[in-house]
Amino acid sequence: MNSKDSRNFVQALETGDRELMKTVPRADVHNHAALGGDFHSWAAKEGFDLPESPRHFPDFTDFQALVNTIFTYPENNPDGDFRSKRFLSLFDATYELAAADGITYIEPGYDAVLLDHYGMDLERMISDLRRQTDRYSDRLTIRPDVGILRVCDMKDIERTIYPCIESGFFNALDVFADERSGPPEDFRDIYRAAKKAGMKLKAHAGELLEAEFVRRSVEVLELDEVQHGIAAATSPPVMRFLADNGIRLNLCPSSNIQLCQVESFKTHPMRILMDHGVKVTVNTDDIIIFGQRSSEEFFNMFGTGLYTPEELDEVRLNGFPLS
Ligand SMILES: [Zn+2]
Question: How many folded domains does the chain comprise?
Fold first, then answer.
């Protein structure tokens, strides 16, 4: 990473130059691979007359219902071939948009239940995913996460996640969706297996639940990073714990606003977290629903007047691997 990029980043923010921003390398390390595309171009490409999503979801189950619509529209076809093709199309939309927005490093999250759509044929699934990611290798460094959908039955989770961990294709493990439906203790053995396989450990926590849930998730699952973790900002001891242990929070401001966990960019707790020494990154979560790409998220946060361009440049650089 060089200082020219930092200079361009600062200049892009100060002058509102969106095109210059797209030339500055950025990372997106909290991006669900099936939900990172542009809604309009994806729907048009597939010939779908899908209605635009609402802007706010006071009820998390409405958000999950919309996600399900995108996965199954126009008919709820349970056929594995239909589902796997749908997901490959959504992953393409994610990579195309990331590259067009100037993202150079991405950690896309795949759901392990994808393996079910491949009839548990791990080799065919990994071969399809590898072929797809290779097509973008000149523009994007892709380090895939594999995720556990915490609302799934534990037997289905175990059946699909262990082969994914053993495949060697995935760089990190994550657990996501409504955190009220699966305590971290349920996933301890899976996280130990991923750690043994040399994977990075992430988990969604503190998006909907309180600060202590963030600390508990980090301790029980031995996390390296937390997806969201914004509730930590209500607790100085939890923030100290995160700062002391070098636990990074991968934030997604627009997602928090649209899921009604935060009122505005100005009141987003990123400022408080940074003031308490917690390392953060800015990411997109589910662009196909929230509509805000990485470049826009940086402008959104700069627009609050709460961050200097240099501080946001540090946040940008935090997203890249250290080596
Ligand atoms: Zn997420």
Answer: 1
311 is catalytic: no
- 156 in a structural domain: yes
How confident is the model at residue 94, as a pLDDT? 98
**Which residues on neighbouring strands pair with residue 148, listed in sequence order?**
175
Structure tokens at 249: 């929070």
Tell me the three-class secondary structure of 226-267, residue by residue. EEECHHHHHCHHHHHHHHHCCCEEEECHHHHHHCCCCCCCCC
Measured in Å, residue 107 CA sits from the centre of ligand 1 at 12
Q: Which run of H or E residues covers position 105?
A: strand 103-111
Domain that residue 223 falls in: 25-318
CA of 32 to the centre of ligand 1 (A): 6
Of 119, 101, 110, the residue nearest 34 (C-alpha)? 110
Q: 0.70 cut: is pTM over it?
A: yes
Asked whether residue 11 is domain-assigned, the answer is no
Residues 82 and 284: beta-carbon distance below 8 Å: no
Low-confidence stretches of the chain (pLDDT < 50) are none
| Ion ligand 1 residue ranges (Cβ < 5 Å) | 285
Residue 3 is assigned to a structural domain of this protein: no
- Asked, for residue 6, whether it belongs to a domain, the answer is no
> In sequence order, what DSSP letters do the residues of 280-320 get, joined into one string?
EEE--B-HHHH---HHHHHHHHHTTT-S-HHHHHHHHHHTS
Helices (DSSP H) in 28-101: which residue ranges?
39-46, 60-72, 80-100
Q: Which two tokens stand for residue 285?
A: 């979560």
Reported as a single tens digit per residue, the pLDDT across 75-133 is: 777 788 888 999 999 999 999 999 999 999 999 999 999 999 999 999 999 999 999 99
